[in-house]
Write a structure and sequence with these properties.
- The protein is α+β, with helices and mostly antiparallel strands.
- Strands 1, 2, 3, 4, 5, 6, 7 and 8 form an eight-stranded antiparallel beta sheet that branches.
- β2 and β3 form a beta hairpin.
- The longest helix has 22 residues.
- The chain starts with a strand and ends in a 7-residue tail after the last helix.
């Protein structure tokens, strides 16, 4: 798949419900690193960077996929991680139905990096990475999140490209 990059201003509302305690300023060093990697990024009010990937499917169809990189850092003991999110499916309610949830669990089992979460009826592929990744590792993590989410979107919503 080939990529093209552009800022995304849509879909941010789907992920803007984070508690005020998680609100953060954009990590300028992260933004610089993303730009150095060739991504056209913009950050929202909580410091999350948005990237729109242009993808070319194996059949030649053009698709797009939005991916978010959170500036905020989560800590567990000495671990410091940030999250890369990429949405793939939106249910008609705040919950995913059992068949969809089970399919996502199966895919999480098969994923080398990352797994699926549900946020207000949206299935989101999340890769948690250590803070301070080098350029190659961050690029790989972004690609894993983006490709995983786009593949699942194509599977669960054939013929559609919402995210």
């Amino acid at each position: 798949m080939k990529y093209r990059y552009a800022p995304v201003f849509a879909l941010a509302a789907a992920f803007s419900g984070a508690p005020a305690a998680l609100a953060a300023q954009a990590d300028a060093a992260l933004g610089e690193q993303l730009r150095r990697l060739g991504y056209d990024v913009a950050s929202d009010a909580d410091g999350t960077y948005r990237i729109l990937f242009g993808l070319k499917a194996d059949d030649g169809a053009e698709r797009s996929q939005v991916t978010y990189v959170r500036s905020s850092v989560e800590r567990y003991g000495s671990l410091q991680v940030r999250e890369i999110w990429s949405p793939a499916y939106q249910s008609g309610t705040d919950q995913l139905d059992a068949a969809i949830a089970n399919r996502l669990l199966q895919d999480s089992q098969d994923s080398i990096v990352g797994g699926w979460v549900q946020q207000r009826g949206t299935a989101v592929f999340v890769v948690k990475v250590p803070v301070g990744l080098d350029d190659a590792a961050l690029s790989d993590a972004l690609e894993a999140a983006t490709r995983s989410a786009d593949a699942m979107e194509a599977e669960l919503s054939p013929g559609q490209d919402e995210f």
